[in-house]
C-alpha cells in the first residue's frame, strides 16, 4: 500500500506544479494589469490616436499590450487581424514584436500536459486493478507493466510431496519434473525431450496449486505464480507485457517454476466464447505461446498451468513443446480422503476417538480443500467448546456444516443419488464383463467427474483402428446397462442415463448409415460425409434419400436399439447377485479396479 500513497502524492505533485507553471505563464503575459480592454476599444483608441506604443505577441497574435499617450497601460486579447500592422503604421504608433517568454520546453510541457495527466491516471488505475501486493517483492515503485507475479523463494517454500495426499498417480507423473529441475544436465546430455509445460486439470480444490508448489519445494527452485484471471481485466497490451516480464524474471532465476492458475481465463479457444473475441485475452495468450516457443532447450524453466476446464482450452496450448503433458488431479476417493485428512490433522491436537476412515466415508465428493476446511472447522468447534483436543463430534459437526454449505453446489451427492449411481455403473460394468468381444473394464467409480456422476472405464487391450459389428453392437448393450440396472434395482429412471441413450442412438445410426453393416440397408453410406453423421445431424437433411429409405433407416436403428436393450436386461436379470455385489462394493470403496471386478465375476 505504501506504493499507492507514494503514487498519488507523485501525481498530485505533478498536477500542482503544472498548475503553477500555467498560472505563471499568464502572469507573464501581463494579465495582472487591471487594464484589459476589448479589442474594439483598442481599435477605436488607435483610430483616435491615443496609443503611443504597442508590443505584439508573435506567433499567432495572442495579445497586444502597450502604453497610451497619457502614459496609462493597456492590454487586449487580439483576434487575428491582418489590418493591424497597417493601422499602426497609419497612426504612427511605434510597435515591436515580442518573442515568446517561455522556453520551448515549457510550451511542449504545457501542450502535453493533458496527455501526461491521462497517462498518470491510467497508470494509477492500472496498478489498482492489478490488485494484491507483490509479496515476493518483484517490481518496485516504478515497475509499471511489470508482472504482478508472486514469487516464493525455495527457502520459504516448505511444501513437499508428503503434504499432497490422495492423488498418488498425479504425484507419480510429476516426479520426473523434480528430477529434471535438480539435474537438467542429465536430461540435456541425453538430448531427449525435455519437459516444458505441464497442464494440471481437475476440479477446484483438488490440490493443483499445492502440487505445483510441492514440485518447486522438492526441487528447491523459485516458484513464480500468477492467475489467468489477473490478466482479464487489464488494459490492452498490459497482459502481454506482464507475461513477457514474468518469463524474463523466471529465466533470470532459472531453474524455476512458473505456475499459471486458471489458465482457461486466458487460454480459451481463440475467437470463441461469449461476447466475441477479447483482444486482451488473445494477446496475452499469444504472448504466452511466443514465450514458450522461444525457450532455448537449456533454459530450465518449467511452466505448470492449472485448469478445471481443460475442454475449453485452445488446442494450440497443447501442441508439442507447450503444455504437452497433461496430468489429471482427480477428486480423492475414500482412501485418498482419509490420507488427506491425516495430512491436515497432523497440524492440530487430535483425540484418541478420531477415526479418519469414518470421516472419509461420510464425505463423498469432498475435495482436498473441502477436507482441509473440515479439519479447520473442527478445530474451531473444539476451541469454542473449550476442549484441548479435537474429537469425533467436532469433526462430524464440521462435516455437517460444510455439507450444508456445499450441497447447493451439487458436487456432494446425497445417499440416494450415490446408491443410484452405484447400480447404474455396476450395470454398465457387468454387461461389459459378460458380453464377449468387448474391452476389459479397467475401473469403475462413483466419484463424480465433471457432469458425470460416475464412470465405468473400459480400456482396449491394444489400440483399435477398426471395429467389428459385434463390438459396436455390444457397446450399445453396455450403454443401456446403466439405465436397465436403475430400473431393475432402484425401480426408477433418472436423467443421468440420457447421455448413454444419446451415445447408443448415435452408434446405432452409424452402424446403419455410415458403416453399412446391416442386411436391411446393405453396405451403403447415407449422409454426405463424416462430419454430418459425427455432428449428430440427422441424415434426413440429405436430399437424395427417398422417403421410404429414410423410414427403413429409422426402423433399423430402432430394431438395433430394442434388441440391445433386451440383451442388457437379460444379462442383468440373470446376474442380479453380481450387480448387487458390485454396487455394495462401490458404495463402500467408491472406486474399484479390474481385480475387484474379476473377483465379483468369479464369485458364485
Ligand atoms: P486447486 O489449486 O486445485 O484449486 P489448491 O491446491 O489451491 O487447489 O488447494 C487448496 C488447499 O486445499 C490446499 O492448500 C490444501 O490445504 C488443501 N488440499 C487440496 N488438495 C489437497 C491434497 N490432495 N492433499 C492435501 N491437501 C489438499
Ligand atoms: Zn451411464
Low-pLDDT stretches: 128-145, 272-276, 406-410, 528-542
Spatial shape: elongated
Name the strands of the widest sheet in spatial order. Answer: 5-7-8-9-6-10
Question: Main beta sheet, described?
Answer: 6 strands, mixed
**Rounded mean pLDDT score:** 79
CATH class of the largest domain, named Mainly Alpha
- How many helices? The count is 22
**How many strands?**
13
Percent in strands: 5-15%
Distinct compounds present: adenosine-5'-diphosphate, zinc ion
Q: What name is given to the CATH topology of the largest domain?
A: Methane Monooxygenase Hydroxylase, Chain G, domain 1
CATH architecture verdict of the largest domain: Up-down Bundle
- SS-based structural class? alpha/beta
Rg over CA atoms, rounded to whole Å, is 38 Å
Structural domain count:
4
Amount of helix: 40-55%
Distance between the termini: 71 Å
**Quaternary state of the chains:** single chain
Determine the CATH superfamily of the largest domain: Peptidase M41
Give a description of the structure.
- The two termini are 71 Å apart.
- 34% of the residues are buried.
- With 604 residues, this protein is an alpha/beta fold.
- A six-stranded mixed beta sheet has the order 5-7-8-9-6-10, sandwiched between helices. A four-stranded mixed beta sheet has the order 3-2-1-4, sandwiched between helices. Strands 12-11-13 form a three-stranded antiparallel beta sheet.
- It has 22 helices and 13 strands.
- Helix content is 52%, strand content 11%.
- The chain has four domains: 2-105, Signal recognition particle alu RNA binding heterodimer, srp9/1; 150-328, Rossmann fold (3-Layer(aba) Sandwich); 334-404, Helicase, Ruva Protein, domain 3; 415-602, Methane Monooxygenase Hydroxylase, Chain G, domain 1 (Up-down Bundle), CATH 1.20.58.
- The model is unreliable at 128-145, 272-276, 406-410 and 528-542 (pLDDT under 50).
- The structure holds adenosine-5'-diphosphate and zinc ion.
